[in-house]
Design a protein that fits this description.
By secondary structure, this protein is of the alpha+beta class. It is built from two helices and nine strands. The N and C termini lie far apart (34 Å).
């Protein structure tokens, strides 16, 4: 089975799995940007898990992929992080972490701005980015050493291509 076919099948399986779990999924493949969100998403303990996912039709030479993400937690004393990946590769910086254990507020928000240079990514991982669908997953994790899985009230992610 060709590598491309495996990626397409993996993307379809991922979209199917996310849809069956009630997560937000973009129904079509936009050319330059995608925005997704979900409510009441489970945040597993010490296990980075896709919270939302979106796809851009294809990566382009001479572009960056920029991702903005936010996760809102309500009334939970945990340490949580978010980190996006595209086609299985993490973006820079590697994660955005928030410590909600010592806040008196009823909600705690984790936000991050992430990026990846598609030319550099293509050099490091040939035939995975330029001209290929960009499947962007926002991973989330409860990094507390003990306790139950948490629930994120709102999770949102936007991703867009920027010309260098």
């Amino acid at each position: 089975m060709s590598r491309y076919l495996r990626y397409v099948l993996s993307a379809l399986l991922l979209v199917s799995a996310l849809a069956s779990r009630g997560l937000a999924v973009t129904p079509s493949l936009p050319k330059n940007a995608v925005a997704v969100s979900a409510q009441s998403v489970s945040l597993p303990l010490l296990s980075p898990t896709p919270l939302v996912s979106g796809t851009i039709a294809k990566g382009k030479k001479g572009y960056l992929l920029a991702v903005e993400a936010m996760m809102n937690l309500f009334g939970q004393a945990i340490v949580a992080d978010i980190r996006p990946r595209v086609n299985g590769v993490l973006l820079a910086p590697l994660e955005a972490t928030v410590d909600c254990k010592f806040t008196s507020a009823t909600s705690c928000t984790d936000t991050g701005t992430f990026w990846i240079d598609l030319d550099a990514a293509e050099l490091a991982h040939p035939k995975m980015f330029v001209g290929k669908p960009l499947v962007i997953d926002l991973l989330g994790e409860n990094q507390s050493v003990s306790g139950d899985p948490a629930t994120a009230g709102t999770v949102t992610m936007t991703a867009h291509l920027l010309k260098k």
